[in-house]
Amino acid sequence: MISKMKPEMVKYIIVLAVSLFVFSACSSDDSVDDIKPTIDINFEEAFPKNCATIYFGESFDLKMLFSDNVELGSFSIDIHNNFDHHSHSTEIDECNLGVVKTPVNPFVFINDYAIPQGSKSYETNLSIMIPATDGNDSYDEGDYHFYIRLTDKEGWSTQKGLSIKMKRR
Amino acid sequence: MLLFYYLSFGQNNHKLQGYIVDENNEALAGAIITLSPSLKSGITNSSGYYSIPSLQKGEYIVKVSFIGFDPIIDTINIISNTSYNAQLKVKTHSINEIVVTDNYAQERKKSEALNMEVVDASYLKQHLGGSLMNSLEKLAGVTTIAIGSGDSKPVIRGLGFNRVVVVENHLKHDAQQWGADHGLEIDQYAIDHIEVIKGPASLQYGSDAIGGVIDMGNKQLPLPKTFGGTIDLSGKTNNNLLANSINVFARGKVLYADVRGTYIDFADYKVPASHIDIYSYKATLHNNQMRNTAGYEKNLKATLGFVKDQFHSKLFISSVRSKKGFFANAHGLEPKNVDTQLHDKSNRDISYPYQSVSHVKVNSHNQFTWVNTKLEFDLGFQRNFRQEWSKYTSHGYMPPVAPAELDFDPNLERQFEKYVYAANVKLSHNINDKLNIKLGTNNQFQDNRIDGRGFIIPAYKQYQLGGFIIGKYQLDNTRQLLAGFRFDNGHIKSDAYYDWFSSPVNGPDGISQQYLQRAGELDRNFSNISWSVGYVHSTEKLTMKANIGKSFRIPIAKELAAHGVNYHRFSYEIGKSTLSPEISYQLDLGIAYQNHKLSIEVTPFVNYFSNYIYLNPTSEFDRLYGNGNQIFTYTESEVFRFGAELNASYQLSPNIDLGVIGEYVYSEQLTGTKKGFTLPFSPPASAIIQLKYHKDKIGSVLKPYASVESKLTAAQNRVVPPEEPTKASQVINMTFGGEFKLKQQSINLAFQVTNLFNTKYFNHTSFYRLINVPEPGRNFILHVTIPFTGRLN
Fold first, then answer.
1. C-beta atoms of B714 and A25 within 8 A
2. Chain A residue closest in CA terms to B678
3. What ipTM was predicted for this assembly?
4. What does the pLDDT look like over B118-130, one tens digit per residue?
5. Between A153, A154, A161, which is nearest B334 by CB?
6. Whole-angstrom Cα distance, residue B392 to residue B332?
7. With bands split at pLDDT 50, 70 and 90, how would you rate the model's confidence at A8?
8. Where exactly are the structural domains of chain A?
9. What domains sit in chain B, N to C, each tagged with a CATH number?
10. Residue B654: burial class (beta carbons within 10 Å; 0-12, 13-18, 19+)
11. CATH code linked to domain A38-167
12. Chain A residues close to B621, C-beta within 8 Å
């Protein structure tokens, strides 16, 4: 009896294994949002772009285009020094970094911003003031890293890291 | 093995008696003889004699077991007073068993209503992975969450971290289970027996066993007046790993000792990729090496034992120490450029960032065995000390350069120190030949301290107390009913934490500098009742199981009070102090059929969590404490899960077996902000198809074997942010080995090739998957075991 069952049993095992596969491979769920938001800086007025310069004691206009398939969440900006060249840009163009140096009074900027509820697409219209001093001493000039993070309502996120120069005029 | 029984004349009230001896025909005192379907059992006295009175006529399965020996399972027919003698063989060097599941494992599986896997030393040596848990990955329903080449955490049917209890030599292993970035602090060479319980086992194991249990240890007990040991040597080509482990044991009459030392050293591991795309940042690899993932492990272990008549006491003392590097480009606040000259100079050095772990464990296991009663008690102590080191990097409003007068090393990123004290008592008693009752309590006290510049969880103290009762009732020859009930109480008290640096805060009087509080004081008490009812029907060929139960888990300090940057995935994690204990209801079924050619086992389950606790990504960012990182908060939601494992093997010819192992889990969140989504790190469906050749002997080689297997993994498209879908993959692995004789000395060789074609593929449940690191490339693994024994005068 066993020898008669042999081919069937093998077949049975293979069919089980294959069906297990097909079952799982097909069960991708369409009802949930699984698409990340995007950050677009590939247009004329976009700012900052990679290798841009931002000046102390002046304000600059952040111009970026955010979009998502369902609803945008919020975004954050983080500017910190890259004097030790620890950071990089996520852009293809590399910038010429200055010499490695020890920070004395480096500039730090961390802030997060809301996006109007229900937006699928949002062009930033934000003016950011960069102080020249911390009240006493002036900030260090040099290579900085400009990091933008964008989320959508579900918590998907996209990052963009840019190399910038910060200078005094 | 000498087996014989003779008949004598008697009444309906019969007696089974006999002698149990070892290979040298010396009496074994304390060997246990159990008869099923009755629950009657006997134990041998100092001359090796036992007797079991008042037996009815009929056919019985007799099992003779003694720690450190291979058990004997036999069928006897009792028509009158009967004698049954047995000779047991010592287990020490049975390293070459080809089959994973021997009779013992089969019997063990039939005695529990939950589904389980039993693994012995030979399986571990043939499947030696990068870590103990890697070696278990082939078991149906077991996966791992891995980071790097040598660290991984067990995952049972998609549940891991604090949802799986790991027990080593009767003591629950307690470390920093919540972290994905380090492995289990257990020496994989020192383990010779593992049982995996798939399903909620809170009943016997307490709070964290909601997903399952991995219970491991050393079963071996040397024979009286012998000494011996093993030398284990392993090498791996992928990360140039060299390991050696030396074990020496000796036993007088009642006292014995067993000592083991293990040293493992490995270089950076290699992946089949020239660069890694970490969130659109391209990190170029030098010689395909994962920069700075080298490490070492130094382990010491001693067991001192006392065995006399009904009493057996063991004292385990172990120390596991390791230092392992983190992938240098992906640790910190964002993907990073690193000093490639420094890091790529050598593939064996460990630079920043790295972690060092030290785990010390002392436990005393004591056991009294009488005919119908067994009493066990354990006292345990553990200290886990873990440090993460990285070059001082300021974030948030930390000073840009580390101040000189800090009360910790500025390069000490985080430090966790845990002291655990545990006491457990378990009593098992056969009330009559049908009913067995097990009673027990577990008590544990934990003291957790922290240090370093970064913060993630506060210091806390935790007390847990639990008591359980489990009954096993034999309905008839083939059917068994199991039911249990447990009460638990847990108390957790955590300290407040303030930053060591000040941050600017906008207030009514303008901006002021403040030392921000990240965690408030917390004092919570949790109580819970869990229960389980199971049924087992087993005949020689067919076993059917059903079990339904309620399990629970007390939220851990991280879930209640986390507030910090996760340096491994650039996120900011926040706990929720009001979380309630996680509750899970699960129905488990199991059906196994076995004849002399075919064995097939299918184990489906359905599971419902009224509040699954998990880390939910939000659309918010952290501004003040971190670095503008995305915030993840601990949240509870209703979760529904189901799945199944398949384990089949078919004997194509007397020497060739075909095996198939498959597993599948589906999870869906029913409520909350991620309604419709799956759970984080959901394992995709997978199957292993294996063809194995084995023989008792070829020439002078004993038990040679060779196998080829294909591991097929389906795509995982059901993901939760920030995960990416993972493509399907196929990997081919090979093994071969056997026992070689060099004059009188036997040498066991086990050779493996994993990822034969150096395929680039991703493992969805690897922690490094989040930053697009593929799985290790081709690896040749050689494991040599040299056993030796002798007699003491």
1. yes
2. A29
3. 0.75
4. 777 777 777 777 6
5. A161
6. 10
7. low
8. 38-167
9. 14-90 (2.60.40.10), 103-791 (2.40.170.20)
10. exposed
11. 2.60.40.1930
12. 74-76, 112, 149, 151
